[in-house]
Amino acid sequence: MVCGVSGVAKSTVGAKLAHKLDTQFLDADDHHPMENIDHMRSGLPLTDHMRVGWLDAVCRAIQSEHEEQVIVACSALKKKHRDVFRAHFEQCYFVLLDVSKDVLRTRMAARTAHFMPASLLDSQLATLERPDVKERDVSLMDGTLPVEELMTMLAKFGSRHS
């Protein structure tokens, strides 16, 4: 799973990784209920209660639509969010893309077709829980690196967890 706050390039990196590995890709944003999307569009951050239903929907989508390995782009900002996936899937690995706030603001301002406004960036950064030593299935990577360099690093990460 490629995770992180909005604007780190989860979907871009996840889709390219899935293509490179010749596997399936799922974008968790496609599984938000309209209530969540409307909430964010109006400039309000999601609550944990809203995230739980969405994360469960993502897990159901993975289970029903994908029989093999799948690369997922999902914020999974907190440990307990990542734990939802751990509870559903025996083998689940996370790559948390890390990008500075200034770069994130620039990236988010450049997007035209996304429901997440740049005004919610601060709330996402405040919600983000970086992995601790107990989360051995999470790798932190520099999200400003060129995508091809990230692909090389992700391949190494994947081989450690095969």
Give a structural overview.
By secondary structure, the chain is an alpha/beta fold. It has a single domain, classed as P-loop containing nucleotide triphosphate hydrolases (Rossmann fold). The chain has helices at residues 10-20, 34-41, 48-65, 79-88, 101-110, 121-127, 147-160, and strands at 2-3, 24-27, 70-73, 94-98, 138-142. It has a three-stranded parallel β-sheet with strand order 1-4-5, with helices on one face. A two-stranded parallel sheet has the order 2-3. The mean pLDDT is 86.
What key attributes describe this structure?
alpha/beta; two-stranded parallel ribbon; 162 residues; 3-stranded parallel sheet; single chain
Task: Name the beta content range.
Answer: 5-15%
Write the CATH homologous superfamily: P-loop containing nucleotide triphosphate hydrolases
Please tell me the CATH architecture by its name. Answer: 3-Layer(aba) Sandwich
| Helix share, percent | 40-55%
State Rg.
15 Å
Strand order of the largest sheet: 1-4-5
Tally of alpha and pi helices? 7
H-E order: EHEHHEHEHHEH
As for the number of domains, it is 1
The CATH topology annotation reads as Rossmann fold
- Label the overall shape: globular
- Overall mean confidence score, pLDDT: 86
Classify the secondary structure makeup into a structural class. alpha/beta
